Amino acid sequence: MRALLIFAIFIPSVNLMAAIGTAAVLYGSGQGILAGWASLGMLAAFVQYTERAFQPIRNLAERYTVLQSAMAASERIFGVLDTPEEIRDPEHPVALPRPVRGEIEFRDVVFGYDPAEPVLKGINLHIPAGQAVAIVGATGAGKSSLVALLARFYDVQQGGIFLDGVDIRHLAQHELRRHVAAVPQDPVCFSGTIASNIRLHSQEMSVERMRWAAELVNAAVFIEQFPDGYDHEVRERGSNLSVGQRQLLAFARALAFNPEVLLILDEATSSVDTATEALIQDALARMLRGRTSIVIAHRLSTIQHVDRIVVLHQGQIVEDGSHAELLAQRGFYHRLYHLQFAEEVGR
């Protein structure tokens, strides 16, 4: 805004001065022509001289505004770079017991982006190793916050989260995230090849492992349709791929690193066609098999493969059980299920 204000004042001021100068030359030269001591040629020359005199000032003004914009941008950049880290590794991190099983436990977890307004209030949840759990609830219930805490994007204000009996705050972040993979709702793609997007430029991952992951989540279906296959060029943010293709690519990337715990945030099947949605559903079923998984679900049709459903309401767990058990309770899940079923029938 400061750069725009300077630009809005400086450039018109220079143009006004140039106009006043030109008017003064025209007036003076006009008087000279009438008095006989000036000619039309002299008038034309001095008008041109005036224009040439103000052109460098205009250029300087433009450069000054560019400089102001650059300074404003640099302030924002250095503001980001100078932001202190809120999530820090412990001085003496501990290691997870081997082999990593993927058992998760939330103990009296309280968390809020503003500590005065907690989003999660006393969450107690135990997820045995290898179990697939869906978290459902209305918008704002705290589903995504619960998963973000497990990946340690934020730290809890009270309580603790344990992976195989170890508080995740006692682990190095790279150690935690080597065993916990997250698939976001809006998958991130980088400029490069499809292979580099799956491998994330890891030199340790073999081509066979990469291809296995792509085939397991049905990403190979569309990858092999490209003339150059896994060497197909991906533009920035995956702009030359569809939403469904980016989602399958994100699944392949997560599975290629073989994490013990898989987090799937807010599935994005509502904006894809029926055939692609079927591929994504099949990929989800394959990914969840045999590993601890937490799926954030908005569309209840996407959680048919899970072992257990946890219902959040206003930051608290209100129901926990299988699909049939929760429907029989005729509570929050029963209401959510029938509301969504009515919406789908209405469409």
Automatic annotation (TrEMBL):
Membrane topology, as annotated: Multi-pass membrane protein
Transmembrane segments: 33-50
Keywords attached to this entry: ATP-binding, Membrane, Nucleotide-binding, Transmembrane, Transmembrane helix, Transport
GO CC annotations, alphabetized: plasma membrane
InterPro entries assigned: AAA+_ATPase, ABC1_TM_dom, ABC1_TM_sf, ABC_transporter-like_ATP-bd, ABC_transporter-like_CS, P-loop_NTPase, Type_1_exporter
Main location (coarse class): membrane
Domain ABC transmembrane type-1, first and last residues per copy: 1-69
Record localization: Cell membrane
UniProt keyword Nucleotidyltransferase present: no
SUPFAM superfamilies recorded: ABC transporter transmembrane region, P-loop containing nucleoside triphosphate hydrolases
Gene Ontology MF terms in the entry: ABC-type oligopeptide transporter activity; ATP binding; ATP hydrolysis activity
Domain named ABC transporter: residues: 104-339
Family annotation (PANTHER family): ATP-BINDING CASSETTE SUB-FAMILY B MEMBER 10, MITOCHONDRIAL (PTHR43394:SF1), ATP-DEPENDENT PERMEASE MDL1, MITOCHONDRIAL (PTHR43394)
Name of protein: ABC transporter related protein
Organism: Oscillochloris trichoides DG-6
